[in-house]
């Protein structure tokens, strides 16, 4: 039986404007997580983003999700060594917690003797239960553009390829924002006209991302969540407005405060950089066509 694996998991951007809690995009920025079940006890090393999480022990998200999946399959690992090389910024709206969740679950599936019984549907269901919603875990698992939804039988998703003309640009501030705080600003109800507008724009966004990027500016218009979150990230919403005024399809990435611009024209990445200035970290990225990847590590 394989005793150690490496899981590479992509960053993700959820919502994409109007697709609240449903649409997600996998991005070409990756965390690498190595898990070894040999020995005894628990050892966690973290380098890069989120180094401070190494001291959480059994509460570390990779350790927690690994054990949740392993318990589901039956039994306990004798010992657990986890090494994370993190590149996805934490608490910025780029799916760092979903990446850790998927990494832990897939490592457990790969290392448990009965892991082949745990399907991708099972992975999605468990990850959704841990995360609370499937919009980030779905693209992390499947890559590309995903639509995720929940039924009485659990979470479901479908995946699509993104037009090769679309180039995501993540604009990352230094400040962090907890998802719980951003969600806490959302109202319990919204006007019917706003909900109807978002439904139409979300449908249009699927077409824009997969076939007709010229529609991206209209397709990324949102009335459901971004404006309500402005008090928690005024600089992000100001940047979104300025970029959109220039014709750039910009949205808040996930719960923020990262801004995601969806470029597709020649020279558009350079024009985005000129508008943003030096107060944001600019990351032109590819769409990740594949989701999380698991590889055995030779001992």
UniProtKB/TrEMBL annotation:
Positions with a binding annotation for ATP: 89-99
Keyword Nucleotide-binding applies: yes
Pathway assignment: Amino-acid biosynthesis; L-threonine biosynthesis; L-threonine from L-aspartate: step 4/5
Reaction(s) catalysed (UniProt annotation): L-homoserine + ATP = O-phospho-L-homoserine + ADP + H(+)
Domain called GHMP kinase N-terminal: residue spans: 61-144
The GHMP kinase C-terminal domain, residue ranges: 216-278
Annotated Pfam families: GHMP_kinases_C, GHMP_kinases_N
Entry's EC annotation: 2.7.1.39
GO molecular function: ATP binding; homoserine kinase activity
GO cellular component terms attached to this protein's record: cytoplasm
Coiled-coil ranges from the UniProt annotation: none
NCBIfam families in the cross-refs: thrB (TIGR00191)
Similarity annotation: Belongs to the GHMP kinase family. Homoserine kinase subfamily.
Stated role: Catalyzes the ATP-dependent phosphorylation of L-homoserine to L-homoserine phosphate.
PANTHER family found in the cross-reference section: HOMOSERINE KINASE (PTHR20861:SF1), HOMOSERINE/4-DIPHOSPHOCYTIDYL-2-C-METHYL-D-ERYTHRITOL KINASE (PTHR20861)
Protein name per UniProt: Homoserine kinase
């Amino acid at each position: 039986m394989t005793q150690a694996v490496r899981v590479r998991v992509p960053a993700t951007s959820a919502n994409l404007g109007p697709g609240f809690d449903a649409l997600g995009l996998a991005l070409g920025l990756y965390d690498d997580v190595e898990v070894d079940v040999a020995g005894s006890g628990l050892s966690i090393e973290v380098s890069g983003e989120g180094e401070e999480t190494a001291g959480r022990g059994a509460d570390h998200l990779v350790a927690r999700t690994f054990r949740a999946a392993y318990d589901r399959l039956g039994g306990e690992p004798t010992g657990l060594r986890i090494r994370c090389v993190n590149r996805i910024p934490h608490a910025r709206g780029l799916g760092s917690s979903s990446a850790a969740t998927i990494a832990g679950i897939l490592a457990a599936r790969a290392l448990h003797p009965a892991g082949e019984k745990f399907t991708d549907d099972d992975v999605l269901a468990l990850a959704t239960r841990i995360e609370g919603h499937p919009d980030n875990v779905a693209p992390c698992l499947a890559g590309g553009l995903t639509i995720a939804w929940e039924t009485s039988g659990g979470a479901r998703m479908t995946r699509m390829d993104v037009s090769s003309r679309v180039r995501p640009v993540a604009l990352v501030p230094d400040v962090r924002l907890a998802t719980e705080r951003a969600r806490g600003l959302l109202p319990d109800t919204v006007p019917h006209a706003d909900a109807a507008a978002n439904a139409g724009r979300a449908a249009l966004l699927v077409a824009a991302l997969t076939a007709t990027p010229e529609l991206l500016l209209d397709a990324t218009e949102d009335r459901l969540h971004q404006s309500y979150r402005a008090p928690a990230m005024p600089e992000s919403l100001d940047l979104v407005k300025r970029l959109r005024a220039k014709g750039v399809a910009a949205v808040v990435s996930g719960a923020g405060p990262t801004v995601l611009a969806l470029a597709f024209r020649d020279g558009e990445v350079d024009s985005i950089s000129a508008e943003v200035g030096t107060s944001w970290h600019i990351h032109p990225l590819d769409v990740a066509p594949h989701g999380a990847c698991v590889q055995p590590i030779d001992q």
